[in-house]
Structure formats: structure tokens, C-alpha cells
Amino acid sequence: MITRFAPSPTGPLHLGHAYSALLAHDMARACGGTFLLRIEDIDSTRSRPEWEQQIYDDLQWLGITWDAEPIRQSDRLPSYKSALKELWHRQLLYPCTCNRKDILAALDAPQEGVEPDYGPDGLIYPGTCRDKTNRNTAYPDGSVIRLDMAKAIAAIGQDQLHFLETGEPVDHKAQFITTPASDITSTIGDIILSRKDFPGSYHLSVVLDDAAQGITDVIRGADLFEATQIHVALQALLDLPTPRYHHHHLIRDDNGKRLAKRDDARAISKYRAEGATPEDIRRMVGL
Ligand code: GLU
Questions:
Q1: Is the beta carbon of 16 within 6 A of some atom in ligand 1?
Q2: Which residues are listed as membrane-spanning (predicted)?
Q3: Does residue 219's CB lie within 6 angstroms of at least one atom of ligand 1?
Q4: What's 76-246's CATH class?
Q5: CB 220 less than 6 A from any atom of ligand 1
């Protein structure tokens, strides 16, 4: 078993991160497996070295140890680029010049009271740029690149996509979650796989990194459950193994709102400064 914790160094770790990291760590340790760390720093405008250092400090303080040098997404650009080029040569990608306003206009929104369709990756792209570019050319570096989902699903050639999910507790019996492949086109659509300033996107890099690190079990928050369908589709497309998934409940504040990076009030560093112990944190998250 190889599990991982994959935080973004864009703010302090809070109780929700502690829960995820402790679950993944404990799960690997319980069966003599491996626990790895990955720093998801593709958002260069928000990632900061001091947050990365704080991640290491907080995890060590919690008693979490990792079994290899952490990997950083900013060091993995060649892998992302090569996957993008492969998909480009298979004619499954296209460059897109739309901004959010263009997308809303094409969706004929916003109309009073009519909400456009959102998928796990945000607004479902109406396809404006899909057929604008000849795909038989060199890879268009420096462009926003989208996946032509209908073509991708056809290339995968399966009627259904599925993955193993245990939910909670994480050692619960796994069950298959199955999605008809055709649903992915309508409920997720043409997602962005590469940004202008960075050759990659969260979905592409997470899938490539989990495979590169040999992750067998992904433990993460239930907020990413819908995104897992995207990851399973990308794994099928890129011929990568699909790990088991364990989506856990989200830790919420007193008002029932899920914790966000800006919830400094629930930052582990703040509890530390106030004299809490790692055992207190475990108890607070219900472990
Ligand atoms: N980097 C993501 C986050 O901090 C987690 C990614 C994942 O578990 O796949 O929310």
C-alpha cells in the first residue's frame, strides 16, 4: 500500500488537512505500507516557500513521517508536457481563447434566475473553440488547452468507467462506483488540461503524479469525489493504473461550513501556538 498527502502550499494547513494527512499516514503505517508527500504548487501566483515549510513543520509536529523526499509539481513539468503532447498528437486536445465572460455569453447566461450548468471542474464549456483549430499542427505552446471529452471518451472505448471506493472508515469494504462514459461528456465536458503560464492543470498533474509515485490508495476529502470521475477518465486515456479511493467527510466549522485555506482560525499552527498537543488535534478531528 502506498498512500499520500498532497497539499498546496497556498496557506496554512487546517484541521481538515490534518484529518486527511493523519488518515493517509495511519493507513499506510497500519499495514507496513509507504506514506508519501507531494507539494501541489502548480499555482505559482499563490504558492509560497514559507507555506511549504509550514507544511513540513506541522506534519512533523503531528507525528507524521514520510518515506521519501517529497515531490514538487513545479519540478514535474517535463512529464506534464509529454502527456500533453501525446494527447495532442492523438488529436484529443484543442487550444481555447475563451474567458469566463465569453463562456457565459455562449451559454446564454446569466439570465435572471437561470444558473448555467456546473460540473466538478466549474462551468461546463460550451465548445466554442472546439473546432476552430487544425489539430494536425505542432503543439500550441503557451495556450490554454482543453480536452475534447467526447473524442476522449470515444478513444477510451469503454461504456462505463469505474473505480473502487471505500468511503469511511477508510478500511471499509470497497465498492465499485460506476459512471456511464457518455455521462462524462455532458456532466463534465471539455476540461482545461493546460494553462497559459503552466503546462498542466490540477487534474492532469494529480493523475500523472499519483501514477509516478505508485500510489495505490488515495485518501482525500469528499469535495473531490466528483473530480475523481475526471481522474479515472484521464487514467484510462493515458493507460495509467486507477488507485483505490477513500473520500472522507469534510471537517466543518461551528456553523457547518467546510474549512478553507483562509480559515486561519482553524490553522494547525494556531492550535500549536495556543499549546495544543498532537493528541488534541487527533481528538478534534475524531481520530
Ligand atoms: N492539492 C489538493 C488540495 O490541497 C489535494 C489533491 C488531491 O488529494 O488529489 O486540496
A1: no
A2: none
A3: no
A4: alpha beta
A5: yes
